[in-house]
Recover the amino acids of this structure.
């Protein structure tokens, strides 16, 4: 008779190393555990205490459960919650967020389907307070990979999947093509405004839960310098001809291009679009706090 399982917190990047030492994966629990007799070799990944379902100060209503495009200001690219905490801590954050969502996307209700390339991911929702120039983590939300791609629409365009992301946005929210275009345009306008500001980072809902910052983001000026340097390095390393562009509207904004506006129904065959940002708050906001547009439905229509 075997005893209770010894659970592990294994970051994805270290899964092969842990597996070689005796870690096994439980697909039902979506986490790793130590094979019998192998716990000692896997001690570095011993599970940390579970986080509470509601983090101290977290607002689970922030941004509601809807789906919206959320481009991050260019001055804060590369420094965010996941970059500041230990990978093992992020693993237990991911586990908590996925578990409290019932292992379904909180925007469209989709369950994870790895065989179809649909995975559940943890997304950060931020408040950008212009009065204090603070980027404050307000909520963590579970999104499937398709919805997560929509929120980071700039990266979707760089990766050549903007058409699919736009179609998914319209299917989940019930937006028409015209409404989807207006939503993207508003998101770009907000992104332009917020990209003019250097932001301090507030991860209080994580640190109040006992999660340690192992790689501080630095000052607002430090973050802006990191963003400029890393962005320049990425563009320098990008192979010529890998961008996917369209003859339609692309507007140069800062270091990247702002999203092109769609002119056809998402179901039609379309030329490739291109752009980028990284990740950030939604359209339709005040000068202090971002808030999502009201989606018509949260049902997933992807089939």
């Amino acid at each position: 008779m075997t005893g209770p399982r010894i659970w592990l917190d294994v970051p994805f990047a270290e899964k092969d190393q842990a597996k070689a030492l005796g870690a096994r994966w439980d697909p039902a629990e979506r986490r790793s555990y130590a094979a019998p007799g192998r716990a000692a070799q896997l001690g570095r990944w011993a599970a940390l205490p579970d986080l509470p379902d509601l983090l101290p100060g977290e607002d689970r209503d922030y941004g509601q459960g809807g789906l919206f495009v959320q481009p991050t200001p260019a001055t804060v690219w590369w420094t965010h919650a996941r970059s500041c905490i230990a990978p093992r801590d992020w693993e237990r954050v991911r586990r908590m967020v996925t578990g409290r969502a019932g292992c379904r996307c909180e925007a469209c209700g989709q369950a994870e389907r790895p065989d179809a390339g649909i995975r559940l991911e943890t997304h950060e929702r931020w408040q950008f307070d212009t009065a204090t120039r603070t980027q404050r983590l307000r909520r963590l939300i579970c999104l499937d990979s398709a919805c997560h791609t929509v929120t980071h629409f700039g990266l979707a365009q760089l990766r050549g999947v903007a058409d699919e992301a736009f179609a998914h946005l319209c299917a989940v929210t019930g937006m028409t093509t015209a409404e989807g275009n207006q939503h993207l345009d508003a998101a770009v306008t907000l992104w332009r405004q917020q990209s003019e500001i250097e932001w301090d980072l507030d991860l209080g809902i994580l640190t109040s839960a006992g999660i340690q910052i192992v790689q501080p983001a630095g000052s607002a000026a430090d973050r802006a310098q990191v963003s400029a340097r890393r962005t320049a390095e990425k563009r320098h390393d990008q192979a010529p001809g890998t961008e996917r562009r369209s003859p339609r509207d692309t507007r140069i904004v800062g270091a990247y291009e702002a999203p092109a506006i769609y002119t056809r129904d998402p179901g039609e065959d379309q030329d490739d679009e291109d752009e980028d940002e990284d990740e950030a708050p939604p359209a339709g906001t005040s000068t202090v706090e971002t808030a999502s547009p009201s989606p018509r439905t949260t049902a997933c229509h992807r089939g």
Remarks:
- The CA atoms of residues 64 and 292 lie 7 Å apart.
